[in-house]
Design goal:
mainly alpha; 84% helix
């Protein structure tokens, strides 16, 4: 019974993490349009910081903690599909770190990347998420 509750918590945390990871680069696309020092730019800074600190960071932490517990309790850490999933979750976490650094750049008015860069970056979590879900559901190996 506990396994099912932890799995539900894990899925909720993953959904929250992915929602934030998909929204944050989109905010950055719009932030690129705002002149430095403008009210619009300052509003985006607040939105990006709050999204990262109040939603994305806690959701990632819960995702990891619940996921590791599930992997241990279910014995999934012995499965090939889990190793691939784990590598992709590490990549997602690395991308999370990359976005965190970009939030700091925007906060300090040091962004050097274009809207186009953030539009492409917005696809990274989508592609990782698709691969992770396929591995979890299909368990191809």
């Amino acid at each position: 019974m506990l396994y099912d509750w932890i799995k539900a918590l894990h899925v909720i945390a993953v959904i929250s993490w992915m929602a934030g990871m998909l929204y944050l680069p989109r905010l950055m696309v719009y932030h690129c349009e705002a002149p430095v020092g403008s009210a619009k730019s300052e509003t985006f800074k607040v939105m990006e910081r709050r999204l990262l600190k109040a939603i994305i960071n806690p959701a990632m932490t819960v995702t990891w903690l619940a996921g590791l517990w599930l992997a241990w309790d279910g014995g999934w850490y012995l499965s090939g599909w889990f190793h691939a999933k784990f590598a992709l979750v590490l990549a997602m976490s690395g991308f999370h770190g990359f976005l965190s650094a970009r939030v700091k750049d925007f906060a300090a008015d040091r962004n050097t990347r274009s809207q186009r860069f953030y539009r492409v970056a917005n696809e990274v979590p989508t592609l990782l998420m698709i691969a992770i879900v396929i591995l979890v559901i299909v368990k191809p190996f």
